[in-house]
C-alpha cells in the first residue's frame, strides 16, 4: 500500500461552541482554546504518516486575519467559506465526498451528526482509517455508532489544552485515578 495522507477536517465552530456553551458556559479565553497544532502532531505520530489539516471557517464579514495567519503558520490550510446555510457543514461534507475517491485516511474534528452519512461511507472503505476527535460526552449518537471509526478525546486523548477543563464525564474504572478528585 502506498503511503497515505491523513486529512484532518476541523469544524472549528462546532468545537468552539461546544467548549464555550456546554463546558465553560462562557466565551473561551485565548488560553482555554485548543492548541490546534497538537492535533496535527498527534495524528501524525498515531498513524505514522503525513497530515494535512483543513480548518473550515464561515466568513460573514471581515476575515479574522490574525487567526487565519496563526492557522497557516502551524500548518493548516484555512478553508474560508461564505453563503447561505451552514457553509462549514456543507464544505466539510463536500470534502468528505471528494475524499471517497482517494485512498487517504480521514479524521473529523466535530461532534455534529450532519457528517454521519459521509463518515459512514468513508469508514466502510477497505484499508481506510477513519477517526473522530472531540469531547466524548458531546459526540452525537449518529457519529458514535458508526463502525470502524476510532475516537480520540480532544483533551484527554490528544492533550490539546494547556489547562484542565472542568468537564463532567464517565470514567472507565481502569482509568480512574482517585487522586484527581482528592
Automatic annotation (TrEMBL):
* InterPro entries noted in UniProt: NYN
The Gene Ontology terms for molecular function here are: RNA nuclease activity
Matching Gene3D superfamilies:
5'-nuclease (3.40.50.1010)
User: Which protein, by its recorded name, is this?
Assistant: NYN domain-containing protein
Tell me which domain of life the UniProt entry assigns to the organism this sequence originates from: Bacteria
Start and end residues of each NYN domain: 6-155
